[in-house]
User: Fold this.
Amino acid sequence: MDISEYSYVIVGSGLLGAVVAECIASQLDQPVLVIEKRDHIGGNCYSVIDAATNIEYHRYGTHIFHTSNEKVWNYIRKFTTFNTYQHRVLSVYKDQNYQFPINLATINQFYRLNLQPYEVDDFMASIRENIPSPKNFEEQAIAQLGCDLYEAFFKQYTIKQWQMDPRELPATVFNRLPFRKNYNDNYFSDRWQGIPEKGYTHLFQNLLANRKIKVLLNTDYFSVRDQLKKEACLVYSGPIDRFFDYKYGKLSWRTLRFEKETIEMEDYQGYSVINYPEPDIPYTRVHEPRHLHPERKYTREKTILFREYSLPDQGNNPYYPIASEENQRLLDSYKIDAGKLENVFISGRLGDYKYYDMHQTIDRALNIFETGILSKMQFNHAG
Assistant:
């Protein structure tokens, strides 16, 4: 088929685009065109085998699948089997490794105490600042943890990560991290967790395997959109401001840069991710992807590391939205315009300008298909 003949067009082959494309092809039995500007499918979840070590790594940073949403879990397991990996993270402060997010082990080690779980509330009450209505990230952190823990593990890390003062970030950003009064060191609290046993790229190959789906790689949607059927149903997962040609101004983003190193040893740091919150260390964390697949036996006495650096981005390679008041104002204007479009769905982390985890993106994609595309098709048939 020529691209002008497709009635369903998906922009982006990440989780949102791949799931919607799969649903259209399998449930509606309709041809779907997926347009991807990169040279690979999978968006930022894309995984690659390192030739020197045979270790599979995530090109755009470590991605852990986790969810308590049974509908999402049942859907994604049709396309992959997950391993038993459980995500645990350390944070290095003054040459000591602390469990992170903060739990009872972190508190006891940091303050050189031996608190029991039932003693944590009283202790935390003694070190917290009394801030009845925290207005930003810093106030929220100090209100919950006190100044010492905030200064050690969050302040400089946040400055490095977001390239802005924590007082300029909303309190909700801090609330993404749990705080535990016991020794639970699992980063996530969801019912299900793991990594696709055959890697994320294999998962996306399965999602897009339907013969009804055609994928165009190395193709910019904006260079071919005039060739597409004007009445086609469009699902766009790119930056929302780019879709509207930046008519209200550019949204700001954070991006990442990774510095790779191959080391002649079997295991360098013992964890898949370790944070470095101190300001004299330029990177935010170090990834060692061999730990993501405990079920695999790597025979070569080598490992690979990725040092992660956070950078501001002008929209060329956006990773994370920056939740400032100005960005929210711009987003509201773009959302109003998006709501006026017929048969166009703008979503995903870039389209909604929202920090989605993978399971939230899948849920969003299923919702777009079921309550948007499918319900509209049924309504038209009924009419």
User: Anything to note?
Assistant: The radius of gyration is 22 Å.
